[in-house]
């Protein structure tokens, strides 16, 4: 599997997409290029393992890093990548883009955190700035939802990709209110003790990240994508059964070799906690999940409509998942 770090110009890709540019016809040996609007971290290891396993079955894979999820989705539209990572419900609804999600990778489990020396609860964030992952992300949706539920208004929402980057900014005192994943919440507790406090969140069940592709790619590369989905399902189930396999396979495939020792040692505990909390579903998604997502995102003000009124196929193509499951 190859890794390509790039920073593409948003306007150029969007212009190509709007002009009707699409993925070229696949040639034998062409990789499935996966666009990620973030840096790879411990929480990406399951995806990287599944990509390695797909390669072992003859499907070349290439991971591309972009500077935001917005740019990643435009890369998929412009044919710069075949597959994107994210949950672009709002983008699909607002643009009527011919892309569909096809695999539910993770559910939303994030920890709104504040510097307790500055804030003591949600009410204190009225008129204050908070920091999330990126525009349109699950982290933003969750904070927007809590803004409504708590009857407060943030002065501004700023965007810092990478949970570990946001945690670092909090440790350095540059950010006082943010949202991080389980691993980085644990880091804040270890490094800051009582200085960092988790704010309560209840009743949220939504997709954090999914894989998506254009309708053209889903049809033209259906065989390769089926293999990939089969390996995603198998990898998620293996981790569910024994989270320690993540550490073993990271070493076997030499994944993220530049991870600091401290981050690397946190990989297995992270997946143990994620499995315990149901972060990584083993079924790949189903139509009922789409309705839960729409209900959550509509409440957060990111999409319009109600769960009862939408058609799951307006956002998802369950064909690859059904094909992968039927082959097992």
TrEMBL record:
The keyword DNA repair does not apply. Residues 305-328 are annotated as: Disordered. Residues 1-26 form the signal peptide. Its main location: periplasm. Keywords: Signal. One of its GO terms (cellular component) is periplasmic space. This is NitT/TauT family transport system substrate-binding protein.
